[in-house]
Automatic annotation (TrEMBL):
This is Strictosidine synthase conserved region domain-containing protein. SUPFAM superfamilies: Calcium-dependent phosphotriesterase (SSF63829). It comes from the Eukaryota. It holds the Pfam family Str_synth.
Length: 397
């Protein structure tokens, strides 16, 4: 009788199974390794070959601490109303015409809209499509004759007549075209002061200007009487909001990335010189407006978060972020958007913000209310300053 097979002894079949398992395991390990390493290798190659080369920001500015306002309201969203909700898209700047009761704003779809000011922000608040610029209207200023002057990011500096006709005033200075016309204000003598945030990057690519860290911004003037466009200040870091001082002696201009606003003198013995106005702000300034009551109101897009501050200090991080923006999309790094009030001497007085707000771009005070524009919300933020005031901070107390 034949002996039964020894179940403990190796057989060709079991040996083949073990070999197959080993081969499969090895293949899976190699596949996982390749899946992990290949994207890293490709990303490393792209990183090295990409021509985008960020620069260091001024060391003296980056080393400064944040100056807090003596009073604040850090729950701004809770008391806010959504004005013209669903009828405005990205109302970047706002200006008020007291003669007609309209607020004007430029939206992301190219429309300049006007909203009738009412006691309540509910409903459409009488929103009207005023005129379409076919560009991206940003800063807006109201001339005494009722005409609008608009800093259109795509087109340049434009005038909008009271009956809605658009006229291009200027789109270049000293032979260099504007790429991102941004903030604007008008002096009593009619001269228009405005900024070109970047002569290299357009509005849709503004993040690359921020991340590159080079001063492509300019402060410019335009004289309607002579049609003369003049370059006043160059080498600015994302030049943004503009406001003529109430005494007409100087123009305040904001440099968003450096968290500061400075003064450029347009009259008197200091004409042509630059002085600091407010520095080390608790956020990145955008548009600036004077309220006629001794205060400037400045929109703050976001607070200096740890991630942003780290990126601004190290060019290599900004290059990595640029690659993400280019190939994936802009990461969400903004919070605590809001506005600050600043007195005539450049002292911070109050800070309104909320962790859930971002990319707040402007603020104007009308009566007891603060109206804020933004780059992406489908409404204008309205806050009753009497009901929801800024209260003294612990440091101030």
């Amino acid at each position: 009788m034949p002996k039964p097979a020894n179940l403990n002894s190796s057989s060709p079949t079991r040996s083949s199974q073990k070999t197959a398992k080993t081969t499969t395991s090895t293949f899976s390990w190699h596949l996982s390794f390749i899946t992990l390493i290949l994207p890293i290798t490709l990303a490393s190659i792209l990183f090295r070959l990409d021509p985008f080369q960020p620069a260091h920001f001024p060391a003296d500015v980056m080393s400064r601490s944040i100056t807090a306002a003596p009073a604040s309201n850090d729950k701004m969203r809770g008391g806010s109303e959504a004005m013209a909700e669903g009828h405005v898209d990205g109302p970047e700047d706002v200006v008020y015409d007291a003669a007609t009761g309209f607020i004007y704003t430029g939206c992301s779809d190219g429309w300049i809209k006007r909203i009738m000011l009412k006691e309540s922000a509910a409903g459409d608040s009488g929103v009207q499509n005023f005129v379409r610029s076919e560009g991206r209207p940003l800063g807006v200023a109201l001339h005494r004759n009722g005409e609008l002057i608009v800093a259109d990011a795509d087109k340049g500096l434009v005038k909008v007549t009271r009956d809605g006709k658009i006229e291009l005033l200027t789109d270049e200075v000293e032979g260099l075209k504007f790429k991102l016309t941004d903030g604007v204000d008008i002096a009593e003598d009619g001269i228009i002061y405005f900024t070109d945030a970047s002569y290299k990057y357009s509005f849709k690519d503004f993040m690359f200007d921020v991340l590159e860290g080079k001063p492509y911004g300019r402060l410019i003037s335009y004289d309607p009487a002579t049609s003369l466009t003049s370059l006043l200040v160059s080498n600015l870091y994302f030049a943004n909001g503009v406001a003529v001082s109430p005494d007409q002696q100087f123009v305040i201009f904001c440099e968003s990335i450096l968290r500061r606003c400075r003064k450029y003198y347009i009259k008197g013995p200091k004409k042509g010189s630059i002085e600091k106005f407010v520095e080390n702000m608790p956020g990145y300034p955008d548009n600036i407006h004077y309220d006629g009551e001794g205060l400037y109101w400045i929109g703050l897009s976001t607070s200096p978060t740890y991630g942003w501050e780290l990126a601004l200090r190290y060019p290599i991080i900004r290059k990595a972020l640029a690659m993400i923006v280019k190939y994936v999309g802009k990461p969400d790094m903004e919070k605590n958007g809001g506005a600050v009030s600043v007195d005539l001497e450049g002292n911070l007085k109050a800070h309104y913000y909320d962790a859930h707000f971002s990319l707040i771009s402007s603020a104007i005070k009308i009566g007891n209310h603060l109206y804020c524009g933004s780059l992406h919300y489908p409404f204008i933020i309205r806050l009753d300053l009497n009901k929801y005031p800024a209260v003294p901070t612990a440091a101030a107390a």
